[in-house]
Amino acid sequence: MLDLTTHSRHDEARQGETYAPFANDPNQYNKKFYIESYGCQMNFADSEVVAAILQEDGFGATRNFEEADLILINTCSIREKAEQTVRKRLTELRKVKQDNPGALIGVLGCMAERLKAKFLEEEKLVDLVVGPDAYRTLPGLVTEAESGQKAVNVLLSREETYADIAPVRLDSNGITAFVSIMRGCNNMCSFCVVPFTRGRERSRDAHSIIRECRDLFSNGYKEVTLLGQNVDSYYWVDGSVPGGETVNFANLLERVALIDPSLRVRFSTSHPKDITDEVLYTMVKYENICRYIHLPVQSGSTRVLQLMNRTYTREWYLAKVDRIRAIMPDCGISSDIIAGFCSETEKEHGETLDLMEYSCYDMSYMFFYSERPGTLAARRYTDDVPEEVKKRRLEEIVKLQNRLSLESNQRDLGKIFKVLIEGDSKRSADDWRGRNTQNKVIVFPKGNAALNKGDYVMVKVTDCTGATLLGEIVPA
Ligand code: 5AD
Ligand code: SF4
To answer: Does residue 216 lie in a domain region?
Structure first.
């Protein structure tokens, strides 16, 4: 995953979608905003919160930035490349000002937090800079920027979860939605900028999560993905119950699963140190909790994991994979892997390849290490693996994953899966595209069956590529 614009998780999740129009009618509002999102699913979810805040303030969404009064870009800082992509895009978007000098440009999200007022002062690229915990102040900041003032709010919060804000779904297929259950991260992995850009971890009110999921279901959605940097550390105390009732991630999953058996529940991301048997057994108990776990390993070497501050060893990780397979033999597992972290040797890189092979990942997001200013690794370690070595190791990792993905798909040949139809396939309106519980994409001919997106259908796998299963509808 070298270029976030084209390879972000969201893009992969939604590739080829025929999007429904925005939920609101932009003509009913006096001002228009345009928003573009980069990076992780959390950023895409945040943009929907921002859309709700702006809509409340009289802004309607537009897909055409040239007609917008307010252009926002929700940014990612995770790797240097991600930031470069955003800078390039900002330079392009700024050209709008030639025709429409009144248009305001704002940068939101992790880059806003990381670079703060530098954007306004040194780079003069934007009019507004708003960090991930300051979106409620956007209307006031827009007013300030309109009057020519510098509009910056990058305060991080220990409490903000935007719990009461009903997100306005942007670019939605009307079937699957992300629901943010917590914000921030306390883990301090040494390579990662997220704890600095998104602040301390906090969990959202469980009632508001259930309410949002219920509303989605009553509006025709069939799948929710519960989002957090580390969902397993979700923990919320219900003060309205005498003595205070605690809700952990397993409890939350169960509550969401109970909304309706036909509402699929997914979650991301799990941390190998925190995922519990209780979560695994809750998954087993409910057919509608999808058999899929994104369990980032980062490295297969215990020494490197220690430098990364991941707080588990290679053996611990492998025991988790064994545990998942013992409890749910049919569970899909995917990973994140970093090639060429500080001081990584050839042997340690080999341990990563070996661990991937053992874990039989169905899919992985793979990166080479990119030093981020301010992180523990940037302060303590030397980024000493040469770029060409990093790239070569990454290539080896990608090549292996391609083989593992193909083998995983080949093992599914002849199997029958329950598939949730998400829309037309990318290639042809004669084919449906959906997913099985393991999160694999399946494409199959529509035939004469009277089906719609959002329906479940049984599909037999007849062929595959490394990325997609191909199949045919079979009687339920
Ligand atoms: N360099 C490369 N990859 C990184 N990630 C996070 N920080 C960095 C970095 N500095 C990767 C990790 C994480 C994913 C979201 O991004 O694999 O799990
Ligand atoms: Fe970053 Fe680690 Fe937190 Fe993930 S768990 S956001 S990699 S610090």
So the answer is: yes
